[in-house]
Design a protein that fits this description.
InterPro entries: F420H2_quin_Rdtase, Split_barrel_FMN-bd. By secondary structure, the protein is of the alpha+beta class. The chain has 7 helices and 7 strands, in the order ααααββββαββααβ.
Amino acid sequence: MGLLRAVAGSPYSYRLLLKWHRLLPPVERLLRRFSRGRIGVLELAGLPSLQLTVTGRKSRIPRTVTVQYVPDGHALLVVGSNWGLAEHPEWARNLGATGHAYVDRDGHRETVRVELLAGTERQRAWHTILDFWPNYALAQERAGDRTFRIFALWPDASTSPEGVT
C-alpha cells in the first residue's frame, strides 16, 4: 500500500487523476460490488475513506458516495473538492442542507452530526487537511474561485441509523 499511496500522492500522478477522474466512480462501484463493500479505490491507494449516506435535499432519497476523510480528534473532516471542478459536488450540497448523515467505515455504521466549517475553524481544518493530503491544494488551484466546503462529521450517539441496532 505504501507504493500505491506514494504514486497517488505524487503531484504528477494526482494531476493525471484530475484529468481522468471520471473513470474512478465506475471502478469504485465495481470494486465495492466484488469486495462486498470492503475495498474501494481509495483503500487501494492506502487512503482512509468512508461511505457517506446523505438524504437528497430535493429528492429526499438517501444517496451513498465514497469520500476520503481526514481524522481530526473525534471528528472526521471531509472536503467537497469535486476534483477541482467549478461546481460543488452534489453530496456536499446535500450535506450542507442537513444536520446529520450516516457513515460506514471499517465495517461499522454510525450516525454523524454534520458541521459546515467556516472562519478560523475552517482555516485550521484546511491546514490539517493539507498536512494529511497536500494534493488538495492542486484541486483547489484547479477550482479557481470556488472555495471547497469542509465538513466536520461528529459521532452522534443520540440517534442510530435506521435499520441498524
